[in-house]
Amino acid sequence: MPRAGPPAEDAAPAWLESPPVDRFPPDRYLTAVGIGSTVARAESDGRTELAGRVNAAVLTVLRTGRDGQTSVPPGNVAALQPEEARFRADDLPGTRALSHWLDPATQQHYVLVALDRMAAASTVEEPLQGALARHRAALAEGRRAEEAGEFVRAFKQNARALQEARRAALLQARALALAPPPERSRIAQLITEPILSPAEERLRTLARGLEMGKEQGDEQRLQPDATASEPFVVTVTHADSGRPVAGLPVRLTSPPPARLVVGRAVTDESGRAAWRAGPALPRRSLHGAVVAEVDLTTLTPGLDVPDLPAPSVTFSYVFRSPQSTAFLVTLQGGAAATEAASEVRRALTAAGFRPLGPEEAPVLEAGGSDGAEFVELARKLADSRALLVVTGTVESRITEETQTSEGALIIAQCSFSIRVLEPGQPEGRRLIAEFSGAGRASCLDDAAEAIRRARADARSRLADQLLQVLREQFPGM
After folding, report:
1. Continuous segment of H or E residues that includes residue 99
2. How far apart are CA 254 and CA 262, in angstroms?
3. Which of 177, 286, 390, 448 allows an S-S link to 58, with CB 3.0 to 4.6 Å?
4. Residue 297 belongs to what H/E stretch?
5. How many helices (H) does the chain have, and how many strands (E)?
6. Closest Cα partner for 86 from 152, 23, 192, 170?
7. Positive or negative, the Cα torsion across 388, 467, 474, 324?
8. Which sign, positive or negative, has the C-alpha torsion 255, 257, 263, 266?
9. What is the DSSP letter of 72?
10. Does the predicted model carry a pTM greater than 0.85?
11. DSSP-derived secondary structure for 120-160
């Protein structure tokens, strides 16, 4: 903008007291007088005053538009915030400095600044028309993408349509605030139908058309600070057609309220997204969970749509180690079972598992239990320990007695049938392993010794098989 020249005389000009309405009629111009220690500061002060008056008019347009008191569609201004529609003093169009005067007594500069309302409105109207054209083009492209089943392209185009609709609504509100009264009805006719709220609702409709399902990785058993044994895998499909959605950003986060991102992925052609998360997995005591959700904000950065749905699923898992696992051994079969139970307890304790004392589960230790009691006990321990249950039968007997030249050859067998349970797991996943075996021994003329040897062999075999099973469940044991 051109600067006003130096004053021609020391007398205060008339425009200092009242605007020159003969040259700048108020129905066409806004004028203000700025004051400052320099010409530039005085001009800036005048522009600031003009911006304040125009912004008050913008606020009126938004307020009356929401109330339905103007021809502006309420849906177009309801989502706009006054802050985003405001002008800054340095970007106010159609303004220029007209006159300058320096007060010889105070050395203060005064500048008369005027805003040409018609010129300013025209300046805003051109980009308004452009935003409307881009809005309509994006809507059309979005419809074509939907018909082709291309969700990502459809969503991006509709998001662009929303951004251009917001820009057009914003520019219309600004143009109405700037324009002289005779021009306002024409500017109002540029957008006569709601475009902003329908664009937002179209995006919500598209998002609601997505479905997410868990394919793999739920209810895992993890070692502390170790990578998940299997990936977390989701599938995203169209709710109506069931077709997979490719190219969709999906993120893995901790549960609310923290929602810390621990992984990101993009769906492939089959609609699958997978993560193999490691030590960053969130945990609470022995348990943890992560939420997989469609990340539409990454798909269209800067998108701001209230109540935009995002399909999600939750994966749960348990951190397992011998040190965080209590065990309970309940075997039946008389003396052989009692001896075998003692051997199993020694082996599990040596491997790092923590024995569950009789005071914690007296009924179970004393006489076995049905599955319901195991599950209830696991629930009581859940916040501090996982529970491992070794149950089954151990029985010994004489299987053969043959007379030889040296005496009676007595053969004994001690059979075992074992089930290893983790009752804290969901039903259907509680059985870790099931195995059986037998120890055998022989002795001349001494049945008791044959039984004793068979039991010892059975105890050793049982403990070895049990530890082999648990090594598969607890890597690094």
Report:
1. strand 95-102
2. 7
3. 177
4. helix 296-299
5. 12, 16
6. 170
7. positive
8. positive
9. S
10. no
11. HHHHHHHHHHHHHHHHHHHHHHHHHHHHTT-HHHHHHHHHH
